[in-house]
Design goal:
With 112 residues, this protein is an alpha/beta fold. The protein is built from four helices and seven strands; from the N terminus they run E-E-E-H-E-H-H-E-H-E-E.
Amino acid sequence: MSPTPIAIVQGSSRGRVFAMELITGIGLGLARYLLKHDPDLAVVATSRNAKDTRSAILERADDSAAERLRVVDLDITNEDMICSAREKVEQEFGKGNIKALFNVSGTVSSSI
């Protein structure tokens, strides 16, 4: 069996409502897109709040998306957390399986 290809999406935080606008994380949308459109790809999403991020990504997703999603707590200003996140990914997926890495800290806004 060949190794599972993975995509890492750094910055997958949950969207929020701010000043009557819906703020949706770019990484959140990207993680949802990858899970929906590539059934062979595992997605590792990073966030400072893994539990809320996992729930947000999986809203309206099918069961296979839940099986292929891993969310890792990560504050990119903390070097120990960066090393720990790398170790978690390597333990589960091995080395050399990363097919894409997206570093997307930011937001997109649209009026409600």
